[in-house]
Design a protein that fits this description.
Layout: H1 2-9, E1 13-17, H2 43-51, E2 54-61, H3 72-87, E3 95-99, H4 122-131, E4 139-142, H5 145-154, E5 157-161, E6 178-180, H6 183-193, H7 217-229
Parallel strand pairs: 1-2, 1-4, 2-3, 4-5, 5-6
């Protein structure tokens, strides 16, 4: 009965967004608020999606904490800055979820193997439990295949923002439903697929991915189930 009630509560939709390289320009271990520079041209899409009922959830690996590059307080200041920057554009973020761990870290308690660091789906699943989100009705947008794997495993549809860093996916669970050049174009695809915007081109593939098709939801769900069972 408890599980049934929980499933009924998890009816909300969300856009899960990676932070560095997806929401803000990629930078090596940013540690100051001014290091987070928003990509241009994404605010209108985010406003439309949130107005349509999608929660906007940032899901980010922050191993710099485990490595001793910055503190949790530093991270909170960065996220406060990001919240204010988006707020000036009329965009409200519903939640921030971050993983501070890394097995090669130097900070006690954070230098561990965990189930929240992407490609593990722990942060997405936690957000879903806490915020009543149904991952199967949600999307995950990120710039690396670890983002894609986390989203696929959790049950989301996934879009990869191609920054030219990713080799072709080695398995179905790491294969995105869509690939685009920019976050703005990735959000356009979601708007189109959700009936909230005009049709978007789905033809783009990185040059090294030519010949590799998108993974179907059935194939991804089957591989995700196998991963959980294993």
């Amino acid at each position: 009965m408890t599980g049934e009630r929980q499933r009924k509560r998890q009816t909300e939709r969300a856009i899960f967004l990676d932070r560095d390289g997806t929401l803000v320009h990629a930078r090596h271990y940013p540690k100051l608020p001014e290091d987070l520079i928003l990509y241009e041209g994404i605010d209108a899409q985010l406003r439309t999606l949130r107005a349509a009922g999608f929660q906007l959830i940032v899901v980010t690996n922050q191993s710099g904490m485990a490595r001793g590059y910055f503190s949790e307080q530093d991270l909170m200041l960065m996220h406060d800055h990001l919240t204010r920057s988006l707020g000036l554009l009329g965009v409200a973020i519903d939640g921030f979820y971050y993983c501070p761990h890394h097995p090669d870290g130097v900070v006690d308690g954070l230098a561990i193997v965990c189930d929240c660091r992407k490609p593990q789906p722990g942060m997405v699943r936690r957000a879903a439990r806490e915020r009543g989100i149904d991952p199967r009705r949600s999307w995950f947008v990120g710039d690396i295949l670890d983002d894609v794997e986390a989203g696929n495993t959790a049950g989301c549809r996934t879009v990869l923002v191609d920054l030219g860093t990713e080799a072709p996916p080695s398995s179905r669970i790491r294969q995105p439903a869509f690939v685009e050049r920019t976050t703005a174009h990735a959000l356009d695809i979601i708007l189109a697929e959700e009936g909230l915007g005009p049709a978007a081109s789905l033809a783009y593939r990185p040059d090294t991915w030519i010949g590799i098709g998108a993974a179907s939801s059935i194939e991804i769900e089957a591989e995700a189930a196998d991963a959980v069972a294993g």
